[in-house]
Structure formats: C-alpha cells, structure tokens
Specification:
233 residues; alpha+beta; Chitinase A, domain 3; 5-stranded mixed beta sheet; elongated
C-alpha cells in the first residue's frame, strides 16, 4: 500500500469518527434563542376572554328579563286603569239613569218664554209649630227649613212627587191646585192667583212644566212655611 493511500484511509476514518461523536451527543441547547428559558415557552391560551364573554351574555340576559318585567307591569297597570275607568263610567251612567246622585235636568227651574195665563201646580207644605192653623206640628222653624230642602233635593233627583206629598205635606194630598194669572178669569176648578199666598203663585208662574221650585217661609209672602212646588202644566 502506498503512503498516499494510507493517509487517505486515515483521513476517512477520522471523519467517520467525528460524525459518529456528533450524532450521539443529540441536539444542542445552543439552538434556543439567547436569553430565553423554559419558562418562556409557548403557554396554552388563557380562558379570561371566554369568561368576559360569558359575563357579558349573562348581563344582557338579566337586562332583557328586567325590561320584560317592566313591560308586563306597565301593561297590567294600563289594563287596571282601563277597567277602573270603565267601571266608573258604568256606575255614573247607572246613577244618571236611576236619578241618584244627580239632579234631573227637567226638574230644575226654567223661566217660561211667555208668562202663562193658567198653571196647574202640586205642592208639599212643610210647616213648623204654630204655622198651619188646625195642624199639630212639633218641628221647629229650622227643622222645617232643613226638611223642605231635603225634600226639594230628593224631588229634583227623580223621586215620585206624589209619594213625597203623601208622606210629608202639612196640607191635604194630593196638593194639586189650578191658578189663573193676574187679571185672567179663573177656569173651572181654578183659583185666582191673588187668592193664594203670594209665594205660591210667584213660584208656580215663574217655572216651566215639569220644573220644581221652592218658596221660602216669609211672614207675609209665605206665612204657612216652606212650599216645595212642581208645575204640572
């Protein structure tokens, strides 16, 4: 073998030995970037983002529930208000139809367009002690006034006038009188206006048919007490 061949063989053997040594050593840590350690390795993604999203969804759900509750309450309040208004209107209409709690428009005094020559009236006389000859009346003057205005109110609310006459008058039921006007000849069964106490005619001729008025006690114009007067015709 020549010297050249021996040198070449030794060089190859040396190269093979060097390669074998490097292979057994394993990968070097020197490949890691300078200044880093295992603690800086890639970590799994944090769940903080998912938690924030869940909280947001929960808050939105709670707000929606509260809004729904407010809407339901508002709807209930509106329904209750409508029902209350309907009941109130129904009650008012019932009271109006029965004449309770309100005056009937036709019973309130309305002056006639033309002064009548003849009238027919019905009255309730409310006297007091000593005011009506031949009548034993125990009520005082103030009690008579109070009673007269109570009867007036009831009559204007639609109570049966005939029944009120029978129950309260200190005259004789039914208390119906016809009168002729001043200077007018009385018809059959009528009295001349001047032949009645002044207050009786003053009220009877100053209201329209169906109206109800009152003549207050006056020693000259209405000496017998209070007259609740309804003009019939």
């Amino acid at each position: 073998m020549s010297l050249r061949s021996m040198i070449l063989l030794l060089a190859v053997a040396a190269s093979l030995a060097f390669l074998g040594a490097n292979a057994s050593a394993g990968p070097s840590d020197s490949t890691a970037p300078a200044g880093t350690s295992d603690s800086t390795a890639v970590q799994p993604p944090s769940d903080s983002g998912e938690s924030a999203q869940a909280d947001s969804v929960k808050a939105a759900g709670k707000a929606a529930d509260e809004a729904a509750e407010r809407a339901a309450k508002a709807e209930k309040d509106a329904k209750d208000a409508r029902e209350h208004a309907a009941k109130k209107a129904k009650k008012k209409a019932k009271a109006a139809s029965s004449g309770k709690g309100t005056k009937m428009a036709g019973t309130m005094p309305v002056k006639p367009d033309v002064l009548p020559q003849h009238v027919q009236v019905q009255h309730i006389l409310i006297g007091f002690t000593g005011s009506v000859p031949g009548k034993s009346i125990s009520r005082t003057k103030e009690e008579a006034k109070t009673l007269a205005y109570q009867i007036l109110e009831r009559a204007r609310k639609g109570e049966d006038f005939d029944e009120l006459v029978r129950k309260y008058t200190d005259d004789s039921p039914p208390g119906i009188y016809g009168m002729s006007g001043a200077g007018v000849a009385p018809a059959t069964g009528e009295f001349p206006r001047g032949g009645m106490v002044p207050a009786f005619g003053n009220v009877g001729f100053s209201i329209s048919p169906g109206n109800i008025g009152i003549a207050d006690y006056d020693a000259t114009a209405s000496p017998f007490g209070w007259h609740v007067i309804k003009r019939l015709k």
